[in-house]
Amino acid sequence: MELPIYLIGYMASGKTTVGKILANKLGWSFVDLDDAFEELYGYTTGEYIRKFGMEAFRKKEKACVEMLSELPIQKVIYATGGGYPCWEDNMDCLKELGTCFYLRWKPEQLTKRLFLSGIEHRPVAKDGMNAQQGANDEEKMLAFVRGHLAERAEIYEQAHYIIDAPNTLHDSNDEVLAEQIYKLITENL
Ligand code: S3P
Q1: Which domains does the chain have, with CATH numbers?
Q2: By the 8 A CB rule, do 67 and 74 touch?
């Protein structure tokens, strides 16, 4: 298996939580690319999108990932930003740099997880929800996530491995995902 490892997937799919568990189990490094973005440019990803717009954000995000990929360390788990693979040739680039795992959840689960983890710092989800019709925020978010995930799924599904989340909202789901990926990595290194 080519290293490093890139975890990809929709917002609130657990890329950061799963990545930390996995890195800990393997004794490898963990990098959250949204955090790296903030350290590099002095704005959170959400702040940057609000201030400079999506196109400018995607360019900076790409530069950040490319810069980190030049570091001479292999044993790293990267949690990517949810929209990263879906811009220009980013998915092809990630696949060439290392091995990609898609954390796949159903729109209903993602909607619940988005509210649990908070949408204030996620302008894409918040604005997307507000642009929908619906009786309440949950209905509007579900409508947004369904459509948005359907647009992105084709790209995400190009990952080397697709990891399906259990069909529940249990807290231990992130650990279940990490365990599956851990097995795949250790058996294929
Ligand atoms: C985005 C997801 C965010 C962040 C930015 C845009 C997206 O990352 O990169 O707000 O377009 O899906 P998370 O997936 O970590 O929330």
Answers
A1: 5-188 (3.40.50.300)
A2: no
Q: Which of ligand 1's atoms lies nearest the C-alpha of 121?
A: 10
pTM summary value: 0.97
- Mention every residue, 6+ apart, whose C-beta is less than 8 A from residue 87: 58, 61, 62
Residue-by-residue pLDDT tens, the chain, 189 positions: 999 999 999 999 999 999 999 999 999 999 999 999 999 999 999 999 999 999 999 999 999 999 999 999 999 999 999 999 999 999 999 999 999 999 999 999 999 999 999 999 999 999 999 999 999 999 999 999 999 999 999 999 999 999 999 888 787 899 999 999 999 999 999
Residue the block writes with tokens 């250790």: 186
| For ligand 1, atom 2: residue with the closest CA | 82
Distance 9 CA to ligand 1 centre (A): 9
